[in-house]
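Progress note, sequence design subtask.
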């Protein structure tokens, strides 16, 4: 469902505005030109980034782009300079890793893995979005733990949902008390205007952008607001531009499909996974340090490994084998497995990255809908029926994500498809069994931008460029970034088994 954007009425310029529009100078473009500032680069304070060759800078931006003289935010920006000669440089490749709520500096290592041709031709720039990470001001003490689910036995998902609503309402309200003004300026529309200012600040006449997951929301919104400024967009692991808030919960179905594909591709693990999970559903494991290892430790951690091909083939396999040995082996083998499961890498995270904090702040500004309780219960029932392993755990987050935001309305909601744009260059990429953003969302992205093309790989990866370990994918995306020429046809790349982990310098 398309949503109306807020508009600003400027009667003084009534006669001038049509002439500006004909010249391609819309209010958004004029504002971006007015606000453009050249970035001043210097050494990074973060030791890891400095050692990896990154430069750092800060871009000051208005909290609300329509109020340039109002409160400001400072965006932390990170650049890996191009390695080639100046006459070979094409421009800047901007990158957003997703979320919402993920920092750019936390995923800056992706720039180090880019093919040599891209490294020679582009500066690689990422940034911490407003309210996140090294940007200032930033949200603090707004996170929440994982949903409270019974360790064993049948799960009463309605009760889990009610408890989750209370948890998120408390966390979100506390966050709003501390950061109300900042949160109201954290929506995607503001982030897209930040991206436009970043493009202008480096002197690129058009934008080259790679966005993963929520990064595709940033990219598609940029295409909707600044279609004439696009050089090349790689939209990788897509969120459908047609969805409202309730529609996001349908991604809860994807992990079960992703897991099913992974086990089919690794049949020696299927039986071990099944029997280990069934055992943990009946009885948790007592570990040597006295802690308890539950089915949720197993499932929550496994689904974080599957979207990354290198981790699925190594850590995912190791996790399943270790849990199976901890349950069914004996003697020293079982003792070693139980000790291994004490490591944080094999346990559920203490903080949920798909709820509260930046995730809720952005989602609840982007989407004005606040689903009623009955609609949430109905959606949960359907999702747990269709995805019995992971559907409930994710659905309770997505359905209750804006609990506590009832009194903080969305003032600048994200534009929804259909978009009144044409001939925007873009490559829409993803895997057919993506466990976070289902492939049909990529099809829906293509429906919103008919001039773009799709590139699918057979696999379960979430975001496929530099992740699927597919030569087919790497060649296609790299060629597109270098030439900005959209392929004549959609393309499918075959499944490739995971290779060894590649170290990041």
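Output:
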């Amino acid at each position: 469902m398309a949503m109306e954007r807020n508009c600003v009425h400027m009667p003084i310029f009534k006669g001038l505005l049509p002439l500006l529009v004909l010249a391609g100078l819309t209010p958004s473009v004029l504002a971006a030109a007015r606000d453009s500032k050249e970035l001043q680069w210097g050494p990074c304070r973060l030791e890891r980034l400095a050692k990896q060759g990154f430069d750092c800078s800060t871009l000051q931006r208005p909290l609300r782009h329509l109020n340039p003289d109002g409160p400001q935010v400072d965006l932390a920006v990170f650049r890996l300079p191009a390695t080639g000669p100046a006459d070979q440089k094409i421009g800047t490749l901007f990158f957003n890793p997703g979320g919402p709520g993920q920092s750019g500096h936390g995923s800056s290592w992706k720039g180090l893995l880019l093919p040599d041709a891209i490294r020679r031709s582009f500066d690689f720039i990422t940034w911490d979005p407003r309210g996140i990470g090294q940007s200032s001001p930033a949200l603090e003490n707004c996170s929440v733990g994982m949903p409270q689910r019974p360790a064993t036995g049948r799960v009463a998902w309605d009760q889990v949902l009610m408890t989750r609503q209370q948890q998120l309402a408390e966390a979100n309200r506390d966050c709003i008390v501390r950061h109300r003004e900042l949160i109201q300026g954290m929506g995607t529309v503001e982030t897209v205007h930040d991206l436009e200012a970043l493009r202008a600040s480096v002197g690129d006449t058009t934008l080259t952008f790679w966005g993963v997951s929520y990064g595709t929301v940033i990219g598609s919104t940029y295409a909707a607001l600044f279609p004439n400024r696009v050089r090349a967009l790689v939209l990788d692991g897509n969120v459908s531009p047609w969805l409202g808030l309730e529609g996001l919960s349908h991604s809860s179905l994807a992990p079960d499909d992703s897991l099913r594909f992974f086990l089919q591709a690794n049949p020696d693990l299927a039986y071990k996974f099944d029997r280990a999970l069934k055992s943990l559903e009946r009885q948790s494991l007592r570990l040597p340090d006295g802690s308890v290892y539950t089915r949720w430790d197993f499932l929550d951690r496994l689904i974080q490994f599957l979207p990354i091909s290198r981790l699925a083939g190594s850590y995912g396999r190791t996790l399943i084998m270790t849990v199976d040995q901890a349950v069914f082996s004996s003697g020293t083998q079982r003792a070693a497995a139980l000790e291994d499961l004490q490591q944080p890498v094999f346990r559920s995270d203490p903080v949920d990255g798909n709820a509260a904090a930046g995730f809720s702040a952005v989602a609840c500004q982007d989407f004005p809908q606040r689903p009623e309780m009955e609609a949430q219960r109905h959606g949960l029932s359907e999702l747990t029926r269709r995805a019995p392993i992971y559907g409930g755990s994710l659905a309770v987050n997505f359905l209750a994500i804006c609990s506590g935001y009832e009194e903080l309305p969305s003032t600048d909601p994200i534009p929804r498809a259909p978009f009144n744009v044409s001939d925007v260059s873009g490559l829409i990429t993803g895997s057919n069994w993506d466990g976070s953003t289902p492939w049909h969302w990529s099809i829906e992205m293509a429906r919103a931008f008919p001039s773009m093309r799709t590139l699918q790989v057979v696999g379960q990866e979430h975001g496929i460029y530099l992740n699927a370990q597919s030569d087919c994918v790497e060649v296609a995306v790299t060629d597109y970034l270098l030439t900005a020429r959209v392929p004549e046809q959609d393309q499918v790349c075959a499944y490739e088994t995971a290779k060894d982990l590649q170290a990041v310098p």
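Residues 19-134+205-243+418-493 form a domain with the Rossmann fold fold (CATH 3.40.50.1820). Work on this subtask will continue into the next period as scheduled.
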